[in-house]
Amino acid sequence: MRNAIKAAVAGTAIAGTMLVATPGAALAANDHWCSVTTNYCSAGNTPANSSHQIFVSTAGTRGNYTLTVIDVNNGKTIHRVTVNAPLEKTLGNVWSSYEAQIWCETGCPGANLHIWS
After folding, report:
1. Cα(107)–Cα(30) distance, rounded to whole angstroms?
2. What are the E-state strand segments in the chain?
3. What is the pLDDT of residues 51-107, one digit of tens each?
4. How far apart are CA 46 and CA 101, in angstroms?
């Protein structure tokens, strides 16, 4: 009985290690980010997922900035907001591919923008 438990635990540990060690390359095509060098950066051409959602987040921002999400197929803005704090946003009912842009009013070098599906 002990040997069976030890074998089960060892098998679970090996499987867990394999999951942790597996690179995320499968998701990389739908995962884009950029870092602001002065006051702007753009990341994207991210297709909506099968649930017709995309996700956008910002980090490291200082001061006011505008986050814009644009449909890359028709150039239309689907979301725009001006805020002064980090942001996480889920956009639903989307069917195309999208680009996210961040514009900082007073500059925000080092701020990060992330868009994924």
Report:
1. 28
2. 31-35, 40-47, 53-59, 65-71, 77-83, 88-92, 97-104, 112-116
3. 999 999 999 988 899 999 999 999 999 999 999 999 999 999 999 999 999 999 988
4. 12
Residue 79 has, within 13 A of its CA and on its CB side, a CA count of 21
Q: Are 26 and 34 in contact (CB under 8 A)?
A: no
Alpha-carbon gap, residue 70 to 25, rounded angstroms: 25
> What digits encode the pLDDT tens for the residues 93-110?
999 999 999 999 988 999
Judged by DSSP in three states, 37 sits in coil
Q: How far apart are CA 109 and CA 60, in angstroms?
A: 9
Identify residue 107 by its one-letter amino acid code.
Answer: G
Model confidence, pTM: 0.74
